Amino acid sequence: MTSAAVETVARAKGLTPLRRLLLPAALAIFALIDVLAFRADSYRRWLDPSSSTGAFEAAIAQFQAFRSEPRRDVLVLGDSRI
């Protein structure tokens, strides 16, 4: 299908070039807001430590700061009782 045919079909369906760019632009804006609001380190400063999200983020930060020693690491499978 040629580009002229694609344009004709798009115009017949009412999809102007602006409307075709609307969804990708909206997704890009959503992703940018998500990154700025929730993935930045400043997000953790605003959390209440006594909230469930604050406790979870604190636990994740503590786990990431923990230095493991590969020679002493052990994998446990199965029941949670040891």
Structural class: mainly alpha
Q: Strand share of the residues?
A: under 5%
Order of helices and strands: HHHH
Proportion in helices: 55-70%
Average residue pLDDT:
80
Work out the helix count. Answer: 4
Could you walk me through the main structural features you see in this protein, from its secondary elements to its overall organization?
With 82 residues, this protein is mainly alpha-helical. It has helices spanning 3-12, 17-39, 42-46, 52-65. It starts with a helix and ends in a 17-residue tail after the last helix.
Note the topology:
Blueprint: H1 3-12, H2 17-39, H3 42-46, H4 52-65
Characteristic key phrases:
mainly alpha; 82 residues; 63% helix
Can I get a quick summary?
The protein has 82 residues and is mostly helical. 63% of the residues lie in helices and 0% in strands.
